[in-house]
Amino acid sequence: MLSRLAPAAWLPATALGLGLGYTLITLTRLPWWTLPGIAALAGALGLRVRAGMAAGGYRRARPWSLVPLCLWGLYVYLADSFGNVDLSAVFFHLQAGIADHGGSERLIAAGLYTLSMLGLLYAFTWLVRRDTRLRRIEPLIALALLVSNPLLVGVGQRSAAVVTEGGNWLDRHYRPPVIEPQPAPPNLLVLYLESLERTYAAPAFGDAYDDLRALGKNGVVFDGVEQISNTGWTMAGMIGSQCGTPLMPAGLVHDRQFAPLAEVVPGVDCLGDVLSEQGYRLSFLGGASKAFAGKGTFYQGHGFDRVLGLDELRPRLNDADYVNDWGLYDDTLYDLTVEEIKRLDAEGDGPWGMVNISLAAHAPVGFPARRCRRRQGQWDGDDILYSVRCSAWLARRLVERLDDQGLLDNTLVVVASDHLSMRVSAWDKLVGLPRENTFMLLGNGLEPRRISRRASIVDVFPTVLDALGYPPQENRAGLGVSLLQPETRTLLERYGKDKLNARLLEESALQRRLWEGLAPNPGRAGR
């Protein structure tokens, strides 16, 4: 019986080779054509298990490695979906809520991954039960899989930060925003361009960034805005640029732990809090649901008067079916943005502020709007540069449209990416270049120029306050400094990204500040 089964060992071995090859290609820059070679090598090794099968016989063992393999499968799925796996993003979304997400295409991928993992687990179990040599070393394989899994390493680091006392280097650098009132403050328009990082301006991406490059000729363009830990997804990017601090999820410091969040970073004052105290009337418009990831909760809790998402805006569309998986296309979102700015401008009761976020360049392929397709021609459904070009053109068109209508008089315009792109069709080119976020300021009397500094998205908050005419005390707010003031060095200029990222993993004092009021009493934790 064993002799008849032995030649079939190459089949499960090949399946394991496919899994290993896919993992290596996903986590490294190995080309796809190496996958068949890795699978073939594994299959050839499977042909050599016959002796071990004959000597050891069949045993109905339950491999120790099944759970570690599942954890690795989860990590590879996340890496394939997003490029860089950010545990903070996972923790935050579990607490803030993932209802009304637009990732329906990932559900299909998740189903295929699940089926593949079941096949891989069956293949591994088949071999362990039939090969005595593999059965003997399998516990060591399980241990190696556990200690090498980045998910478990990350969880261990964050758990250590929660129980470690005293780690307050970041919190000591935090400065609450303190400004002085001014008699005639300008209006403010903030355009977040989903995933449209400045790296796309590189020659490798052709003309994809040209419209933003043209827009920047009339304003202040910042080079060198890097992405630090806990700022790499939409809510983290918004909080980083509006509150001056990375988004350290509530996690285990939250009194109810993984209960839905009633407030988002209630312990710090952000852009909306500061401006509302100065009499600004604030609106947020986004094409996606405001319920996703606590977006509505954040804006409603930080000074915004009107917070409008998919549910509120869709009834105002001429064609209610003209939506994508996430929400409104950017052309219709920007039409509604113009309407909202006209309303704010017509009221004339003090300055207004508008924050808006696009969807066109959202990973993995983007959502190019109908107007872009008429302008750019046919889209292949995969090319992210098509979507980037669309997003840049629509943003430029919106700014020029508002300017032509006189709606940007006495207005500061901020154009920024919310974070770096996640895995897209241009991923290999992106990760091969120095990556940085888009950040530019237009209007309000600013002299057009380029400013090159080593900065991060937390520096956007004090820079915007400064550009509005509200320079914060010591040019600092949150963990950031105003990039318009060269005499004040940023944290990245002083300490570098590695040290800052390490502190974000090792400390909890700033995390407790962010979630003050939701965190348990620290004294209770020690009892």
State the main characteristics.
24 helices; single chain; alpha/beta; Alkaline Phosphatase, subunit A; 527 residues; disordered N terminus; 2 domains
The CATH superfamily label of the largest domain reads Alkaline Phosphatase, subunit A
Strand order of the largest sheet: 4-3-5-1-6-7-2-8
Query: What is the CATH third-level topology name of the largest domain?
Result: Alkaline Phosphatase, subunit A
Please give the radius of gyration in angstroms.
Answer: 26 Å
> Quick one: biggest sheet?
8 strands, mixed
Oligomer: single chain
The percentage of residues in β strands lies in: 5-15%
User: What is the helix fraction of residues, given as a range?
Assistant: 40-55%
Note the total helix count. Answer: 24
- End-to-end distance: 62 Å
Structural class of the helix and strand makeup? alpha/beta
Mean pLDDT over the residues: 86
What is the total tally of β strands? Answer: 10
Count up the domains.
Answer: 2
CATH architecture of the largest domain: 3-Layer(aba) Sandwich
Protein name: Sulfatase N-terminal domain-containing protein
InterPro entries: Alkaline_phosphatase_core_sf, OpgB/LTA_synthase_biosynth, Sulfatase_N
Subcellular location: Cell membrane
Domain Sulfatase N-terminal: 186-470
